[in-house]
Amino acid sequence: MPPPALSAQAESFLEALPFRPDDFQRRAIAAFEAGNSVVVTAPTGAGKTLVAEAGVNLALGRGLRAFYTTPIKALSNQKYGDFRRVYGDERVGLLTGDNVINGDAPLVVMTTEVLRNMIYAEAPALHDLGMVVLDEVHYLQDRYRGSVWEEVIIHLPAGIPLVNLSATVANAEEFTAWVRSRRGPTELIVETHRPVPLESWYAVKDRHHEGELLLLPVFGSGTRPNPRVERLLAKGRGRYRRFAPPRRVETIELLARERLLPAIYFIFSRAACEQAAELTAGAGLGLTTPVQRAEIRRVAEERTAHLAATDLAVLGYASWVARLESGVAAHHAGMVPGFKETVEELFAAGLVRVVFATETLALGINMPARTVVLERLSKFTGESHEVMAPGDYTQLTGRAGRRGIDTLGTAVVLHQSEIPFDRVAAIAGLGSHPLQSSFQPSYNMAVNLVANYSPDLADELLNASFAQFRADSARAGLEESVQAKTVELAEMRRSAECDRGDLWTYLDARGAGAADPGAAVRALAQQTAAGDVLRLSADEDDRWVVLARGWGSNPRLVVMGASGETRRISAGDLAPAVAILGSVALPEPVRSRDPKYLAEAVHLLRSFRADIPPILPGADDADPVAGCPQLSEHLAWVRRAERLERDLRRLHLRIEHAGDSLVTRFHAVLELLEVWGYTAGWSLTDKGQRLRFVYNEMDLLLTESAVSGHLDGLGPGDLAAVASMFTYEARLNDAVGAAPNAEVEGRAERIMDAWARLAKAEGRFGLPETRAPDAGFAAMAHAWVAGVELEDLFDGDLAAGDFVRNCRQLLDLLRQVRDGFPALRTSAAAAIARIDRGVVAAGGRL
Hints:
Largest sheet: 8 strands, mixed
Number of strands: 23
CATH architecture of the largest domain: 3-Layer(aba) Sandwich
CATH topology of the largest domain: Rossmann fold
């Protein structure tokens, strides 16, 4: 197919590039030039950003404005710098929680939340907007912030085309169909080719051969697991484990010998990244020359010149630079921005050879490497260890292979005994996973819908979400399945008919007395499936739900009662009074050891109401049907029909649950807001108007605390301390800080009382509970506002980068408080001025 024709302006843009654009880039630009929105999915490093840059150039050339949105401030800052170099300072602006620079410029880079807020505020800046870029649009599946991307796609004024940039996802066609339903003509551009091909390797230490390190291909032919690795690992089974994961320094030495540096080594722990960097730097691997070490020190000094010497001492500058000079660094969210940016610059320049990083580095920052190392394919989520999804593997390893430098990128997975090798190969081979929606109506979203739309249109917009789009698609598929299974059931019933009598009457009577009750009971047990509700005795309330059933003539059942107790029982141990009362739609897959899953199953069991006659064991051989020579064949068809009937009941339940769940939740939110005085019918009260402009995870609680006077009369330090309860969330090992004074403690207690009332109300309306405020940062915030310096404040309980990040989040919230609540304006403004100093001010510096 010949390349599409482009306008003179687009061709001029492409001709100025130092390389020849790929076909997918030209096709995407042509689609945008035709007035369409586009969805571009491509591997990391394939060049999908070029499409957005061309779109920006076209919009500006037409005299229109362009917005470029990113999910994180660091990416926004990076793109702002890139565009300034192209278009100059006057034509480019930046809007993030940290910076407001030239916001009326023709081209503005911003975080996605900023655009969402502008849409709800009906900002004039949207009037001459010619295009919007949604970078990393797959971020919409983020459980905490993902709704923002859907809100933008749904509510952005019609006629403004979108350029959606995404990593490779398995359901790109489905996502594009949804965008098309909201934005009009939308073209999907898929690029699967990696500019630098990726090879996946498996690293393992063999204890039987003096700790030899083996580096073996993950795949044999195609994406099948390498049989050599499978045979090798099979030799290590038994009491004494033969194989182990290589140690970190050993791995770096191996990569250096194989000429696979520079490398990014992913470890899902900040502390472990620091420890690994310290250990590797101290190993004396000789990764840098004297000339390189001098250049590293010069860059480090230049990039941190804005930080005071006392602050640098607190931040461990000397040891940090020493590690850099050895060619090794850590990179994680706990570092101050100046340190992170220095690492990024030195790595991109080839001066730092190894970076130990958490997964936050995988999101958008331009740091390609020759090799990516994955120490583990599982991560602790705070509740359990979860195995990495294929799309996450693709995202992390996307940095392997520097375009124009490397002919191959290398991904190295270290041996993990708890993850079978075939599972490793499956994760590495699949490449992507379906894009999921995390869209849920929040309190802020609800009041903005009330303010801007009619009730019917608000419901329609909620039904326009990607979550509902997927639910509707799933429901259509379920309805087709119901139709097919209904026809199949009628055929089964015909096959089960007996000319000696009514087989169904015969079966109903079998419960009256059977010649072999044990066999009948076992036969009944063999009919059960996960979700069936059993009565285990003559007591009608002795109800249990089946979580799992074994196989064979005497299957074992895993059942759970309404109290949450679980039992494992043999079919032969069931009482003759056992009966199947019906079934509930258990979520799939069944996780019988997951407390949250079991709690959901208990809820379903308690709310179960029987809607079919009980299925009983036993038989009445006096019935004429019992003498039918084809009885066993009839009964086989009956059992198939009963199983199919249960499948149909489950399908009907799934269809019911796949309905208007978002609209139902939205109306529950509205009911709560009306009870709390934020709405009156389909209109907003004064409190509701204030809630419209509060963008915080605890938006309703913050607004309620402000309008109830819980923040009134506080000085700057006390206000900052109390406000930090709405932004801070303790990490697993963070120390619990005490309140700085009795006033803050008293206000915190009042806010916690308000939260308890809100949580109780949310439970009453069937809404998820707002997370509890956290006063763990209050003392630090109070001391910082009071002028305490970093060297006197920092005691090691909180990483310096975390301190800066928490202060900057607090600044963002205090600005909302200043602008939204006049009574708090003076104190909030003073708190902002006192917080935004020193290392905190440097954190917002470009």
